[in-house]
Amino acid sequence: MSTTTYPLRVDGSLDPRLRRWLWLVKWLLALPHYLVLVFLWIAFVVVSVAAFIAILVTGRYPRRLFDFNVGVLRWSWRVDYYSYGALGTDRYPPFTLADVTDYPARLEIDYPDHLSRGLVLVKWWLLAIPHYLIVGVFFSGGIYLGGQAAADASPAWWSPGLLGLLVLFAAVALLFTGSYPRSIFDLVLGINRWGLRVAAYAALMTDEYPPFRLDLGGQDPGVTAHRH
């Protein structure tokens, strides 16, 4: 057995100074981001269609299109981490597609030099079906893309899925104790990490099949096992 680095890495650093009450109004504070993300996700879909054609013809994902879609996933992850996808920080997310190295939530995807022309025809609708079934339980309300239902970019907090319940428990604990239970945080990060890996795979950004594994904790272990 050997291990290789998985091409997508999702990290989150839990803020030790979370305020007890701020989560009650984050739906309002994050509203400008939600409005921007609606348009960004529309563009994400258009870009993904263009990338599909390019990969089918050339076997390559155009770099500028790739960087844009990585930016959308990154922006979505920061907003989710701040709001009801994790409640992991009180630091307001920046309005940028670029990586912000000192922000507590980060996402990176390695650019693929080549992608399979054959896989591009089946991986986003057929090969990913088992993962869709699992993340449907985790997130509910649709196929998970960057912490939001693809159809309406609504936050996970509004969903009855497992992630929404865990974040609710964390919010109640934070309100009454001033502390975010570490075990819940680790599980929340693992669920988000799984969903984002599936999102990147379905968006044709990697040929590396997502592992069926909850990698818990704020720091992405970033490895997947291969048997020979």
- The proportion of residues forming helix, as a percent range, comes to 40-55%
Give the CA-CA distance, first to last residue.
6 Å
Q: Strands of the biggest beta sheet: in what spatial order?
A: 1-6
The helix/strand order is EEHHHEHHEEHHE
Q: Mind summarizing the main beta sheet?
A: 2 strands, antiparallel
> Structural class, judged by helices and strands?
mainly alpha
Low-confidence stretches: 141-158
Number of domains: 1
- Gyration radius, rounded: 17 Å
Shape: globular
Number of helices: 7
Mean pLDDT: 90
Strand content: 5-15%
Q: What's the number of extended β-strand segments?
A: 6
Describe this structure in words.
The chain crosses the membrane at residues 34-57, 124-145, 157-176. InterPro entries: DUF4389. Keywords: Membrane, Transmembrane, Transmembrane helix. This is DUF4389 domain-containing protein. With 228 residues, the chain is mainly alpha-helical. The chain has one domain (2-226). Helices cover 46% and strands 10% of the residues. The protein has a two-stranded antiparallel ribbon with strand order 1-6. It has a two-stranded antiparallel sheet with strand order 2-3. A two-stranded antiparallel ribbon has the order 4-5. α2 runs antiparallel to α3 (63-82), α5 (129-139) packs antiparallel against α7 and α6 (162-177) packs antiparallel against α7. It is globular. Residues 141-158 have low confidence and may be disordered.
Short description, anyone?
The chain crosses the membrane at residues 34-57, 124-145, 157-176. By secondary structure, the chain is mostly helical.
